[in-house]
Amino acid sequence: xxxxxxxxxxxxxxxxxxxxxxxxxxxxxxxxxxxxxxxxxxxxxxxxxxxxxxxxxxxxxxxxxxxxxxxxxxxxxxxxxxxxxxxxxxxxxxxxxxxxxxxxxxxxxxxxxxxxxxxxxxxxxxxxxxxxxxxxxxxxxxxxxxxxxxxxxxxxxxxxxxxxxxxxxxxxxxxxxxxxxxxxxxxxxxxxxxxxxxxxxxxxxxxxxxxxxxxx
Length: 216
Description:
The protein is α+β, with helices and mostly antiparallel strands. It has eight helices and three strands; from the N terminus they run αβαββαααααα. It has helices at residues 6-22, 44-60, 111-119, 125-135, 141-145, 161-173, 188-194, 203-210; strands spanning 27-37, 65-72, 77-85.
């Protein structure tokens, strides 16, 4: 779990799973829960809250949550197996970018920094609220963008950050990209933490992997 709030954990996990379908221009048809819970360590009341959070996200998008599978596990685990549909001509991958394309981000960046502060207990209420908002926002716009012929490639930005996922697009498409830092939407709450060098654990690992392929 990226957060300590059980309902938000459920919402975030569901939003993340559904966004994988939207990130390829698809529309989710149905979902199944994949759930593991340490029943001898954490109360079942919290487990119910996690499931409720996932259900609320699915309901808000009219996606049937038709069932699932649960096990007794050592750590809390929750996600969705999602089935979606897309026509072949509207399918978008990370391999279709063309020279001259513009890069569009549908959400502010900063989840990794905000989550790091939250997990370390140093985030303030405003920062936590922003984290919850970003984690539970589904990229459903992808289903609309996928129908646009002018949109050549799509991907989601998760654990490898903007740079890592953009490099995947560039390498798969045989192009390079130029970023204008001042044009990148970053949550102000995350900027405040970055100024104090609050970074996620994998920030330097990511940079070490991508530094040789980027220039400032």
